[in-house]
Write a structure and sequence with these properties.
single chain; four-stranded antiparallel beta sheet
């Protein structure tokens, strides 16, 4: 008498099925988790990923920082160069932030020139740093009309898992705090600027702040710190920037409009998160 046995699916089989379903039906996959009040990575809606900040990791830069936000990792280096100021702003230096999203950080990015996403994020980072007044550009003046400092704040994402803006802004602020400039002297007779190798001084940052990003699904579910899987499925992407005193600096919203109640809820969460991130700096 022959007998037959039924093999139960293994955990590996279940995981493979879940991965296939996630690829074929990402929105439904996410909605099933949302219905259970959890997210695919196990977090609750208002839970943030762990963040770590390390400064001074690039010895050849004038300032540097490495930030890990979950699995998103960004390294930032600040390089100072001497330049001539603009004619209409003779006493102001330059702050030039930039973000690179290379192909090595995620399969979604291809080799070649900067992607549109990287350019948009760089523009937003520039707006956040320059318009917020984090650093007085007049403090970068060496000699009015002749010589000023240009600070190139270059960031590279070495692993991408969503929310690159928050991670990059945090890395840039940490790198600027870590930056020191050599004492520079302009000689009017020779028209040259000389720098001391021994005497260096830190930047005087005038404002401390942090950004917090959210994704809104179906106008009712607000997800803090969205991952790379969650980001493209959101109906609304919202970023809130507040300073260390809890004052609102700016909001940036893309997608269909959200209610005033949801916006105020996000601002309240952002203030709590900003105080947590400031302690890391």
């Amino acid at each position: 008498m022959s007998s037959s046995s039924i093999t139960k699916p293994s955990a590996a089989d279940d995981t493979l099925r879940a991965q296939i379903f996630q690829r074929l039906h990402p929105r439904v996959y996410l909605e099933r988790f949302i219905a259970e009040k959890f997210r695919p990575d196990g977090r609750t809606f208002d839970e943030w990923r762990k963040v770590s900040v390390n400064v001074g990791s690039i010895s050849t830069a004038d300032g540097s920082a490495l930030v890990r936000m979950g699995d998103t990792t960004v390294v930032c280096g600040v390089k100072a160069e001497i330049a001539e100021p603009d004619l209409d702003l003779p006493e102001q230096g330059f702050l030039v932030p930039n973000l690179d999203l290379p192909a090595i950080c995620s399969p979604k990015f291809k080799p070649g020139p900067p992607t549109e996403e990287a350019q948009v994020l760089s523009d937003r980072l520039n707006e956040a740093l320059v318009t917020s007044g984090v650093l007085s550009l007049s403090s970068l003046c060496i000699h009015p009309g002749k010589a000023v400092w240009t600070l190139y704040v270059d960031s590279t994402c070495i692993n991408y898992d969503g929310n690159a803006f928050d991670a990059t802004l945090l890395a840039m602020l940490a790198a600027l705090r870590n930056t020191t400039l050599p004492k520079a002297t302009y000689d009017e007779e020779t028209g040259r600027t000389t720098c001391s190798r021994k005497n260096r001084s830190p930047l005087q940052l005038e404002r401390h702040f942090a950004s917090t990003s959210f994704g809104v699904l179906e106008m009712s579910h607000v997800l803090s710190d969205p991952t790379a899987f969650e980001e493209p499925l959101m109906d609304v992407a919202l970023t809130v920037i507040v300073d260390d005193r809890g004052q609102l600096i700016s909001t940036n919203e893309s997608g269909t409009g959200i209610s005033q109640e949801t916006l105020l809820q996000c601002i309240s969460r952002a203030k709590e998160r900003a105080s947590q991130l400031q302690r890391l700096l």
